Amino acid sequence: MGTIFAIKRYAIHDGPNIRTTVFFKGCPLSCWWCHNPEGIDPAVALVWDRGKCVGCSACLQKCPSHSLVAAPEGVVWRRESCLGCGDCAETCPALALEATGREASVDEVMTAVVQDQPFFDQSGGGVTFSGGEPLAQPEFLLALLRECGRLGIHRAVDTSGFASADVLLQVAEKADLFLFDLKLMDRDRHRLFTGVSNAPILDNLRLLAERGMAVQVRLPLIAGVNDDVANLQAVGAFVAALAGVDAVDLLPYHGAAAAKYRKLNLPYKGAHFAPAPPESLRGAMTILQQCGLAVRIGG
User: Fold this and answer.
1) Mind giving me the DSSP string for 9-32?
2) Above 80 in pLDDT, residue 100?
3) Rounded to whole angstroms, how far apart are CA atoms 56 and 112?
4) What CATH class is the domain 2-42+102-297?
5) C-alpha triplet 203, 233, 188: angle, nearest 5°
6) Which of 152, 153, 271, 284 could tie 148 with a disulfide, CB 3.0–4.6 Å?
7) End-to-end distance of the chain based on CA atoms, in angstroms?
8) pLDDT 10s digits, 33-81
9) Is the domain covering 48-99 a CATH 2.50.20.10 domain?
């Protein structure tokens, strides 16, 4: 069993060709610009929109902890006793209650995946395990990778690289491709904007390259955070020195996730960020190309 928050079908930006992306819940990083805030907390939680409640009381019958109770003003949600099981969200006809994720078995996930196998076979696509951080649920991830391998489905792992080397190498034995995010080279700035050290991330990226793994390096470009010349040159030099890695995908920041933060009632540290202007993108491409790297916008 594992915890996921979405399965996205016909994904075309999560690896090569047509893919199904399975989003794992829980991430050790807390990036200011995270566009999947529902994937940060490993626990399943509920989102409550009282304005949508129609007072049908269907959720009251489903709640095992009796955290939803009838009151003169309508249905009241007692957060402190809520188990986060999501039963009420599945029942609510008005979508006043939504779960931020769910527990799922390997069989459940694979049932969804194999429905898209004809598209994988025709396009050369496959499955991408993303998040959150899939390496944070290694047993669940490894079980899914084994099943996909048994069925001949291409397997990509979209990761921050923040995990133990032991976990990484176990996953590398089963994965066909890593989509590896590289954000900041400066140690202090990386800790400020992501909440963790970049030392294990850089070590793990080197390790994958040394082991001959297929790695697609991706740089989320955030104006005022990591688009400066010093960081781009450092990224370019680091990636260019990796065996078998000769390209970087630039992923320009966008603010589409702001609505998610409001819905989840979470603070959005990246609210003041703006998309990188065209000249910034061109400048970043030039710097990375001067390091001998091929550069692609998007990934």
Assistant:
1) EEESSSSSSSEEEEEES--S---T
2) yes
3) 31
4) alpha beta
5) 55
6) 153
7) 29
8) 999 999 999 988 878 777 888 888 888 888 898 888 888 777 887 878 8
9) no
